[in-house]
Amino acid sequence: MLWPRLRRGLTPYLFLAPFFLTFIAFWLGPIIASLIYSFTDWRGFASPRFIGFANYTKLFADPRFWVALKNTLFYGVVYVTILNLSALALALCLDSLWLRFKNAVKVGFFLPVTISLVVAAVIFEMIFAKGVGLLNIVQKGLGLGEIDWLGDPRFSIWAIIILRVWRALGYYAVIYFAGLQGIPGDVKEAARLDGCSPWQVTRHVTLPLLKPVILFGVIMSTIWALELFDEPWVLTKGGPADSTLTIVIYLYQAGFQYVELGYAAAVSYVLTLMIVAIAIVQKLLSGREVA
Amino acid sequence: MSGPSQAEQPAPSLAAYLGTLVVLLVLALAMTPVLWAVLSAFKSRADIFAGDVWPRRWSLENFDDLLAKTLYLRWMANSLVVALASTALGLLFCSLGGYAFAKFDFPGKTVMFWVVIASVSIPAFTTVIPLFGWLARLGLLDTYIVLILPFAANAFGIFLMRQYAVAIPNELLDAGRIDGAGEFRLYWSVVLPLLRPALGTVGVLIFIASWNSYIWPLVMMRTDEMLTLPVGVATLKSDQLPEYGMLMAASVLSSVPIIGAFLIMQRQFIAGLTQGAVK
């Protein structure tokens, strides 16, 4: 009777095997290997040599890394603030909308999220373009001067922020709206009967109850912000004058243009640590299971 | 759930009118870039550099150029093959694994599950660097398999599948076993049909991740023939004299499949994209 029992015991492993083998080969293995390589001078074909923390000290001594970090953080703070505040406001507006419209509006808001980041960036290339771009046509119409959005270091990061907020706003508004829908109506009703004005209900009942969802939105958008790559790479290649150089662009250049894979692995681990720290903060703050 | 029901809702207040106005304004703003891209795709080169909003003459020359001068159709085929294959494989891998996590007890289960969950917050490009080196050595750069497998092992996908599979009644599975069904048979004809809502959600998740991914194929694909749509479209962007019309035609054409899929399966898309946000 051993064989049937053994077969029962093996079943879950067999079922998990396709996922886990692929997962180990393409995710878990590389994640661990990347950490190990970050302590080596690996350049692709020659075998890597252990060099201790040299990559990390080189990294922290490189002014371009600090520029990349500063750009990423500036972009992140501005983007996360604008995005979440306006998404929240928009969700409150959506809540007051007549029920009939809500679904169609939701679908409209979601549309930009389905368009790939790269395609969105290419479309915005022609919105920010000097002379022929939509923004400059509008600016001319309003009597404002022309701005070389992508060519002027003062504006390039703002162009990226505008593009990113455009793409994500509806998505976050729908998430916040779903959170608002989850708040039981009788709680709001009770506050209203106690004489609260609509603003007081929002301020003291709705927003506190929405806190977990807001926390989720802020954390998710922060993580996404730190991983910024596609749009600045497509639009400006990190320029002009490194004004849109992000950590991932820095990493990409180190790894795939200069083929310093060990060094790039160190960059990736600095960023990974930042993101894991944020994920841990989220766990601590929410105490909920959000994967 | 959402406040007073429709019947007892009071007449729209001033706030409701204002809110509706704001929503419609934002909606118009959200649609503007898409409309601009469509309009520009149909403009002739002269019209684009004239800087008008409406095309003076609707022209298909941008689309002709795109199809004649670039490998656009090949990139589209690559993207379709890769996204469909990773979705199909991913659904198989994630449903099998999620079911095993949900309904079997076995040594190492907890550890394995937490390893998968913990990996979700690790950014994808951490894996790109060692994989680039390894795959280059193995001569596997520039192959479909490299674009398919990483997306098939979707950690969030297996997590979602497990959540849905937990709800399957044990009695149903035991009844199947008593009837003499083998374990795989049981999975295929009892579990899988019950997982249908999860299949839609996870399928959309994997399809979008694969269809829109950029840095991964950018690093792993070496020849023009093997590029996927996002990478290919981005290569059309030259720094000298940008062919805006052709770029817009490429943007519009490559968004049509995903927007079409979105409009047909909105429910699954919105479920897939908002999973984890609100319980």
What does this structure look like?
The complex is a heterodimer of chains A (291) and B (279). By secondary structure, chain A is mostly helical. Chain A is 76% helix and 0% strand. Chain A has 12 helices and no strands. The longest helix of chain A has 36 residues, at 2-37. Chain A is globular. The longest helix of chain B has 32 residues, at 72-103. Mean pLDDT of chain B is 88; it is low at 1-8. In chain B, α4 crosses α8 and α9 runs antiparallel to α10 (183-194). Chains A and B meet through α1, α3, α4, α5 and α6 of A and α1, α4, α5, α6 and α7 of B.
Note the main sheet of chain B. none
Mean pLDDT of chain A: 88
Q: Flag low-confidence runs of chain B.
A: 1-8
Structural class of chain A: mainly alpha
The helix fraction of chain B, in percent, is over 70%
Shape, principal axes of CA atoms of chain A: globular
How many individual β-strands of chain A? 0
- Please count the beta strands of chain B (DSSP E, at least 2 residues each): 0
Proportion in β-strands of chain A: under 5%
Which word captures the global form of chain B?
Answer: globular
Radius of gyration of chain A: 24 Å
Q: Report the average pLDDT across residues of chain B.
A: 88
In percent, how much strand structure appears in the residues of chain B? Answer: under 5%
For the sheet with most strands of chain A, the description reads:
none
Indicate the low-confidence ranges of chain A by residue numbers. Answer: none
**Helix and strand pattern of chain B:** HHHHHHHHHHHHHHH
Largest interface: A-B, 111 and 106 residues
Q: Any idea what the radius of gyration of chain B is?
A: 24 Å
Describe what is shown at a glance.
The complex is a heterodimer of chains A (291) and B (279). Chain A is mainly α and 291 residues long. Chain A is built from 12 helices and no strands.
Please supply descriptive tags for the structure shown above.
heterodimer, A: mainly alpha, 76% helix, globular, B: 279 residues, mainly alpha, 72% helix, disordered N terminus
